[in-house]
Amino acid sequence: MTKIVEIKNLSIGYINRKNTLKLNSGLNTSLHTGELACLLGANGKGKSTLLKTLCKFIPRLDGNVFIDREPLDAINERNMAKKVSIVLTEKIQVPNATVYELVGYGRSPYTGFMGRLSKNDHLEVEKAIRQCGIAHKKHDSLESLSDGERQKASIAKALAQNTPVILLDEPTAFLDLPSRVEIIKLLAKLAKNSGKAVLMAIHDLDLALQMADKLWLMDSDNFICGSPEDLLYQNAFQKIFNDTGITFDNRSGIFRVEYNNTRVLPVKGHGFEYVLLRRAFAREGIDLVHSKSSVGIWMNIIKEKKNPFQLYKDQSLLMEEHSIENIVQFTLKYLKFEKKSLNESCGSSHEHYSWKN
Amino acid sequence: MSLAIRHNKRYHNLTIFLIVLFLLLLIAANLAFGTLTIPIKEVIKTVFGQEIDNEVWKNVIRRTRWPQTMVALGAGMALGISGLLMQTLFRNPLAGPSVLGISSGASLGVAFVILVAGRLFHVSFSYLDIWGEIAIIASALIGSMSVLMLILVFSRKVTGTLGVLILGVMVGYLANSIVGIFKYYSLEEDVHAYVVWGLGSFNRLSVEKAKLFALFTVVPSFLSVFLAKPLNLLALGDSYAKNLGLNIKLARHLIISAAGILTALVSAFCGPIVFIGLAVPHLAKLTMKTSNHFTLLLCTGLIGASTALLCNLVARMPGSEMSLPINSVTAFVGAPVVISVIWKKRKGQLTGG
Predict the structure, then answer these.
(1) Residue A77: its chain B contacts at CB < 8 A?
(2) Which of A58, A83, A91, A98 would you mutate first to test chain B, the one with the most B CBs within 10 A?
(3) Which of A77, A108, A143 sits opposite B247 (nearest CB)?
(4) Which residues of chain B are modeled with pLDDT < 50?
(5) Whether the predicted interface score ipTM is above 0.85
(6) I need a labelling partner for A28 at 20 to 30 A (CA). Which of A79, A120, B14, B135 fits?
(7) What is the pLDDT of residue B306?
């Protein structure tokens, strides 16, 4: 693994005549051959801007970038095309183009004035198409492909360009889940087998956590890079996704939406059933809490029973169910009914389920 | 190289061969048919420089039909290619030579000469033979080239092609409204002369001028195949083109210049010929089913020439004493093509070419 991209104290953003919009500064990291790195961060934090800066679409504001130990300024347009290739979010729309033609255009940096493909170019195109698993579609028109196949064709085009670095800007944004997994697996394979350095901006956190060699977490003030496991260990996700209504469960490695629940319901029992029940109630604004007391309204979970979910008031069973949806609906209805009747009787006794402050 | 590609290549070669054959047939038909029908045998003899007995036939072919055929061929080729260049550059299937306002620039120049200059100098250009003709051609060239320059300067300042496209359309509107003002204050006969110019014609040029015109349109048309690689890359979108090492600004300037000069030449010598530039590239794309602009440019040039010759033949209405203005015929060919393009695209979005 050699260092192929090195980013030193980089500032990114946009300049126009009047003002400069700095999105991020002081970025330091590097990308190695054979590595799949995923660039994560909320929208507008500069993921695309970083990618555009790396392939010289826009000028950098400060700092430096080295590709293959050469500073970005020293690389001219034609050589740049042989070092960094890009795949963008938008579908490529070329009227009448076949997959083969599209991938063939990826050879442009190597072809002559007329863009004619040599025998070697044809071999490279065939290879790229094969590696991306669309050999059976190579003479089909782009319009006839599914979104996933079209994205694979774009990746094949980038492969045919034969660059050590491949950048992808949210290549999975328009795809369904199976296609997303397929594309990421394909990229991971390309990195491993062909020694490409792949940097991909992506929103699928769970996929990135499982597939990426490195994660680049981006926020306005933070830029943290490392392997997914190290970042989990360092609790880096909490820093990045602070104040976004998301909490990160470090043990499971899964993100959770954070609810501002105000009410709690005591429950006895645990296990998978408890986790599912907690999720269902969380959506409705009620947090479940473990409790041993059998006073007021409370839930009981007994796995072995046919109807494992039971709702009690004090000692009397109100309802038992095997469907979580039904028991949650019943509980909500019952709570509402009880509150109403309490109000009618001028709030004599205390409320059975308590309010958090 | 795989079998399918070889098959594809054979299909392309065969198609191009057929189009060339069709083109030659149309050239022969243009020389043979008209008010007076001349036997094909005699036509071929004349073309290859052999003497034929019938002096009238010889004169009709050499003096009228031959220059007209050459002009139609060159104009069709130039307009078709100019249209393809613009459709790819602007990634818009409805772009055409008239869209960039270049034809409008030519119209404005000519309107100025016919409608304004005539009244200022108290001469009617419609009655001045040779000088009037030269003045009209010069003014059309000046008008279209100045619009082209304006667009080139603008495209240097603005990133992206949409702004340039809008500028072209706006210049077109401006030119048309100025022409409208000219017309409003002009003599009826001058307006008529201007309207006749605007209907377009392939038979305004003498033999010598026709040769020159053909040379200046056919040669640049063929040279445009050197733009195939930048066009292929630009069709992918600016970002991908840049990522593949294309100097986008240079490519855009070259393409706009080429398209502009071709349109300017045709507008100056034949009047603003409509629809061929818009419709022919679509015919080429439909027949060739490729995105490679090397093939498309070649095919567009040939189909453009054929279409113009076909229109010319129809406009002449062989066997009758009457003839039609060329622009009313091209519209009949062009409109169905444009409608079918929109019809085909109704499922997808109207983007790309």
Answers:
(1) 242, 245-247
(2) A98
(3) A77
(4) 1, 348-353
(5) no
(6) A79
(7) 94
Residue B191 lies in a domain: yes
**pLDDT at residue A176 tops 50:** yes
Contact with chain A for residue B281, Cβ under 8 A: no
Is B39 inside a domain boundary?
Answer: yes
Q: Taking the CA of residue A271 as centre, how many other CA atoms within 13 Å lie in the half-sphere pointing to its CB?
A: 10
Q: Which one of A54, A105, A111, A151 makes the best mutation probe of the B interface by having the most chain B beta carbons within 10 Å? A: A105
Decide if B352 is inside a domain.
Answer: no
Comparing B353 with A97, the larger pLDDT belongs to A97
pLDDT of residue B352: 42
- What count of CB pairs under 8 Å joins A to B? 93
Question: Are A183 and A155 a contacting pair, CB within 8 Å?
Answer: yes
Which chain A residue has the Cα nearest residue B234? A94
Q: What is the DSSP letter of B204?
A: -
Domain count, chain B: 1
CA angle B78, B16, B214 (to 5 degrees): 25
What does the pLDDT look like over A228-256, one tens digit per residue?
888 888 878 777 766 666 676 666 666 66
For A38-75, what is each residue's pLDDT tens digit? 998 888 888 999 999 999 999 999 999 999 999 999 99
Does A92 contact chain B (CB < 8 Å)?
yes
A140 and chain B: CB distance < 8 Å anywhere?
Answer: no
User: In the prediction, which pLDDT does A349 show?
Assistant: 44
The pLDDT tens digits for B43-82 are 888 888 777 788 888 888 888 899 999 999 999 999 999 9
> Which residues, other chains included, contact B63 with Cβ-Cβ below 8 Å and sequence gap of 6+?
B207
Domain housing B136: 3-345
Cβ separation A115–B351 shorter than 8 A: no
- What is the Cα A165 distance to its own chain's centre? 21
pTM for the complete prediction?
A: 0.81
Cβ–Cβ contact A163 with B under 8 A? no
A309 within 8 A of A328, measured Cβ to Cβ: no
Cross-chain CB nearest to A108 (options B226, B244, B247): B244
B287 part of contact set with chain A, CB < 8 Å: no
The DSSP letter of residue B115 is I
Q: By the 8 A CB rule, do B167 and B154 touch?
A: yes
Using pLDDT thresholds of 50, 70 and 90, give the confidence band for residue A201.
very high
From the candidates A48, A83, A108, A120, which should be mutated to test the interface with B, based on the most B CB atoms within 10 A? A108
Q: Do A143 and B348 touch (CB under 8 A)?
A: yes
Q: Look at A97 and B294 and tell me if their CB atoms are within 8 Å.
A: no
- Nearest-CA distance from B243 to chain A in Å? 6
The pLDDT of residue B244: 94
Both tokens of A325, joined, read: 């949806």
State the smallest CA–CA distance between residue B287 and chain A in angstroms. Answer: 11
Residues from chain A that touch B233, judged by Cβ atoms under 8 A, are: 105, 108
Domain harbouring B31, CATH code: 1.10.3470.10
Report all structural domains of chain A as residue ranges with CATH numbers, in order of start.
Answer: 3-241 (3.40.50.300), 263-344 (no CATH)
